[in-house]
Design a protein that fits this description.
The chain has 11 helices and 21 strands. By secondary structure, the protein is α/β, with parallel strands linked by helices.
Length: 500
């Protein structure tokens, strides 16, 4: 019986994919609520592209410019997730290792210690401390050589170098370009607090030679909006000492006698300097001695494993990645798709190989990738493009595949974990969708149910200068499906959609 049920799901999903296979036809009618939301925002229908495919039933698909390549913003994380779950599996893990080719005599490691990155998305300060504590527990107290930081899992090892800032806030976490060693997320942990007076700030943990000076002024904003008055920090160096000067405004409190405290994580210093300062501070705290250098290089060929840390399986990390829209995690996962081909393609970057892996997966499932442009797999890009139909078909394949539950559990539940944007709606609590937002982009992709409780896949995107004001059009489509269903062939013929 289960095999018959599975066959029925696969056949119905295949039917949904084939239903849009004929060449270009007129688009369906836009629901009145969608038209109204676009009109209120001053966004023309030509800036809107969407598709709805039935899953496990034979209802008629609905489309509006479904084959038009659009900027997807973070909704592209869905495609990265789908391909990674299939190619790597939900149990794929990142790791971090401490290794050495040198012998240990008593408490002395007689050579270099290697810190090797393996695309661990959760290597925080506490996790790094635990690794060093395990090394100390093995009896090592003094390291005679250098700390060799090996980031060479990906090619190039440092993809962040020489890349211009994506926007005016390069210090914030969403802008981090990761590498194989994501120690502390390449972010300096800083606590900022105020009890009504001048804000105070300090690093956590305290880093020798690093001082945080606050020139921030109290503001009337809510604590959760602390970054609204942020101004770029200034770095002042005196030899090996570093002073980080914070500027702008910071909330004085909630007006009821409660102060404001924020644990900020900011990309303020180069990640190699951050690695060095964290290592020296934590090793010293553990009673260790180190007088060598900290340098980036590939590990020598004959090293032995001293300590290994494994991250949680990506099937679990995906839930944080998609629900919190973590760009660095999505980039790491995307790059991991290129690892298998690196040995056979020594001249290609890992990002190029990841793009080939995604395109190969789409071709394997007979999904047209016309107009697809891949950059980093997170959607934080001005160049990435995908047609709603391509994304929807990938979601349809995932729905009937063995990793369906892993993907669906990672998608925010509209009306609970993510705002539905419509108030009360029968879609609330049922629709699981990943949103996407850039300056001129809003998008939404995932699964929803119609008024009969039947499942659908939806993908919709708006690319326009007023896209943020038109976000309600995306939610209106979900609501319309849940309330009354989507309109049949056009009462009003829209622009001709591209053929799938």
């Amino acid at each position: 019986m289960r095999r018959l049920q599975r066959f029925g799901l696969v056949a119905a999903a295949a039917l949904a994919l084939c239903a849009l296979a004929p060449a270009a036809r007129a688009d369906d009618a836009l629901p009145a609520a969608v038209q109204a939301a676009l009109a209120r925002a001053g966004v023309p229908p030509e800036a809107f592209a969407a598709v709805a495919l039935p899953l496990a039933h034979d209802a008629r698909p609905w489309r509006w410019q479904a084959g038009r390549p659009m900027q997807p913003a973070s909704s592209l994380k869905v495609l990265t997730s789908i391909v990674a779950l299939d190619r790597l599996g939900p149990n794929h893990r990142g790791y971090t290792e401490l290794r050495s080719a040198a012998p240990v005599r008593g408490e002395l490691l007689q050579g270099d210690l290697v810190l090797r990155g393996g695309a661990d998305p959760e290597l925080g300060v506490a996790q790094f401390w635990a690794m060093l504590a395990e090394l100390r527990a093995q009896g090592v107290r003094e390291i005679a050589g250098d700390l060799v930081v090996d980031r060479t899992l990906f090619r190039p090892a440092r993809m962040d170098l020489g890349v211009p800032p994506f926007d005016e806030a390069p210090e914030f976490p969403y802008n981090v370009i990761p590498d194989a060693l994501q120690l502390a997320g390449a972010l300096l942990p800083i606590d900022i607090e105020s009890d009504g007076g001048p804000p105070r700030a300090y690093t956590v943990p305290a880093l020798p030679g690093v001082t945080v000076a606050s020139r921030m002024v109290p503001s009337a904003r809510r604590c959760r909006d602390w970054d609204e008055d942020w101004q770029p920090a200034q770095l002042e160096r005196q030899g090996s000492a570093l002073v980080i000067v914070l500027r702008g405004g910071f909330p004085r409190g909630d007006g009821q006698g409660n102060g404001c405290r924020v644990h900020a994580r900011l990309q303020l210093i180069d990640r190699q300097e951050l690695t060095e300062r964290l290592f020296r501070a934590l090793w010293s705290e553990l009673g260790g001695h180190f007088a060598g250098r900290v340098r980036e290089a590939a590990a020598p060929p004959a090293t032995r494993l001293l300590v290994r840390r494994e991250a949680r399986p990506w099937g679990e990390v995906l839930r944080h990645m998609n629900k919190r829209s973590d760009n660095a995690e999505a980039r790491l996962l995307y790059l991991s798709l290129g690892l298998a081909a690196m040995a056979a393609e020594p001249e290609a970057s890992t990002a190029e190989l990841a793009a080939r892996a995604v395109r190969g997966w789409l071709a394997e499932h007979d999904i047209d990738a016309g107009g697809l442009v891949l950059d980093n797999g997170s959607g934080l890009s001005r160049s990435e493009r995908i047609a709603p139909l391509t994304l929807a078909r990938a979601l349809a394949v995932s729905w009937s595949g063995p990793r369906a539950a892993d993907l669906q559990m990672s998608l925010p539940v509209l009306g609970e974990e993510a705002a539905l944007g419509l108030g009360a709606s029968p879609a609330a609590g049922w629709a699981r969708m990943k949103s996407g937002t850039l300056r001129d982009v809003v998008a939404l992709a995932g699964y929803a149910r119609d008024r009969a409780g039947r499942p659908w896949v939806l993908a919709k995107m708006i690319n326009h200068a007023q896209a943020q004001r038109a976000r309600g059009a995306l939610y209106a489509l979900v609501d319309e499906l849940a309330r009354v269903g989507l309109p049949a062939p056009p009462a009003v013929v829209g622009p001709q959609g591209d053929g799938p």
